[in-house]
């Protein structure tokens, strides 16, 4: 059985939120060392990266995100994954930082965008 790692929430057949997780292939790339033995390690991936997350403004703060995460983390458990990294959460994205806290995560990196006129 393939776990559900990409989900789309709909309202009357219109997408309102999406969540996309992929296996973290960094462990495979690190062990390949220029050979094909990395394919063996791809079966041992136990980490995921949450690369895509979005919710339409009108549906924020209504619990849709909680439902999507509940269903998404069923796929995490069913797939035997142990860890999910929320990838590239910007420093000023407080709503997503709160979601991370809500699901028991911890903030260990901050990304900031700087701008300078040249």
Could you characterize what this model shows?
The chain is an alpha+beta fold and 118 residues long. The chain has one domain (6-102): 3-Layer(aba) Sandwich (Aminopeptidase), CATH 3.40.630. Helices cover 31% and strands 25% of the residues. The chain has 4 helices and 4 strands. The protein has a 4-stranded mixed β-sheet with strand order 1-2-3-4, with helices on one face. The protein is globular and about 50 Å long. 11% of the residues are buried.
Low-confidence stretches: none
How many distinct helices?
4
At CATH's second level, what is the architecture? 3-Layer(aba) Sandwich
- Shape designation: globular
CATH class: Alpha Beta
Quick one: how many beta strands?
4
The CATH superfamily is known as Gcn5-related N-acetyltransferase (GNAT)
């Amino acid at each position: 059985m393939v776990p559900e790692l990409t989900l789309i929430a709909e309202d009357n057949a219109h997408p309102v939120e999406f969540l996309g997780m992929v296996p973290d292939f960094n462990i495979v790339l690190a062990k390949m060392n220029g050979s094909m033995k990395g394919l063996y390690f791809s079966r041992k991936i136990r980490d995921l990266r949450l690369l895509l997350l979005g919710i339409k403004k009108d549906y924020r703060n209504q619990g849709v995100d909680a439902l999507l995460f509940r269903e998404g983390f069923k796929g995490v458990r069913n797939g035997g994954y142990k860890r999910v990294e929320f990838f590239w959460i910007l420093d000023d994205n407080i709503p997503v930082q709160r979601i991370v806290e809500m699901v028991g995560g911890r903030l260990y990196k901050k990304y900031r965008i700087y701008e300078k006129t040249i």
